[in-house]
């Protein structure tokens, strides 16, 4: 039964919740994406893009992956997909087709809003190239401020969402004692050629590319802070010897099974995250 040290702020949330006999708030559906690329130092292996949430954000100070909540529009839009259809995604994610489309749409939308990476192309074998120019930034800002929708943006650019580029990996639910809770689907995606993620959202105060093993070593040494879903996902993805092994690894997983860490409070006042 794996366990992890819990930050003091989270311990306080847990103590207060249990002492008051509070009722858990509903977990909002969300999606996050691990962007991966070959190791740029020439070594074998690969790197993952991580960002540190700004102190003003939920889970501020923690390193995580680009992502966010599902918006109402994610399930209401008519979206051009190049890849699995909503019904197929539903079977994979254990959701009704409409909800599955919303999660997949949120994953692609959030990674564009937050990291400036667009998983879309003009036809099933292509992905759009560099999307860091001024015109793309105007389109991204319109999406962030909800002056346009994701489907409208893709349609105006004559693109379809490359849903086949998103590999479903896992599903994590925020512990019941947190005041804001998320039911988050984790996806893995290779960084499209010609694109580069960048901090454009204002929701992070630091970003970096790092090998999964190096990120875990720094977290173990206390150099960077990460919550259990990030730690475990990095360990799982990092177990793949190279990027070519990822599709098979993802196909063998059950991304519909929810995982929810809980906190065990010890008599001495210490606490740890526990995964059953």
Automatic annotation (TrEMBL):
InterPro entries, per database record: NUDIX_hydrolase-like_dom_sf, NUDIX_hydrolase_dom, NUDT19
Keywords annotated in UniProt: Hydrolase, Magnesium, Manganese, Metal-binding
Superkingdom, natural source: Bacteria
Domain Nudix hydrolase: start-end pairs: 26-232
Required co-factors: Mg(2+); Mn(2+)
Descriptive protein name: NUDIX domain-containing protein
Species per Swiss-Prot/TrEMBL record: Plantactinospora alkalitolerans
Taxonomy of the source species: Bacteria, Bacillati, Actinomycetota, Actinomycetes, Micromonosporales
């Amino acid at each position: 039964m794996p366990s992890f040290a819990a930050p003091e702020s989270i311990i306080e949330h847990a103590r207060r919740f249990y002492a008051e006999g509070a009722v858990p708030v509903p977990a909002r559906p969300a999606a996050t994406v691990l962007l991966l690329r070959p190791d740029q130092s020439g070594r074998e292996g690969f790197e993952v893009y991580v960002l540190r949430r700004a102190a003003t954000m939920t889970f501020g100070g923690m390193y995580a992956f680009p992502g966010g909540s599902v918006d109402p529009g994610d399930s209401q839009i008519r979206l051009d997909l190049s890849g699995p259809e909503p019904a197929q995604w539903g079977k994979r994610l254990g959701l009704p087709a409409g909800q599955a489309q919303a999660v997949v749409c949120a994953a692609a939308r959030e990674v564009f809003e937050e990291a400036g990476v667009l998983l879309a192309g003009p036809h099933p074998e292509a992905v759009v190239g560099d999307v860091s120019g001024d015109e793309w930034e105007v389109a991204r800002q319109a999406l962030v401020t909800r002056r346009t929708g994701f489907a409208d943006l893709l349609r105006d650019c004559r693109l379809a969402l490359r849903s086949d580029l998103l590999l479903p990996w896992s599903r994590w639910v925020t512990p019941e004692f947190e005041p804001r809770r998320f039911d988050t689907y984790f996806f893995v995606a290779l960084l499209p050629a010609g694109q580069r993620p960048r901090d454009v959202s204002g929701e992070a105060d630091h970003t970096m590319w790092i090998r999964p093993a190096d990120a875990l070593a720094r977290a173990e040494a206390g150099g960077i802070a990460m919550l259990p879903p990030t730690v475990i996902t990095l360990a799982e993805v990092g177990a793949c010897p190279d990027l070519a092994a990822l599709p098979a690894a993802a196909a063998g997983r059950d991304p519909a099974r929810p995982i929810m860490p809980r906190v065990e409070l010890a008599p001495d006042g210490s606490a740890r995250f526990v995964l059953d």
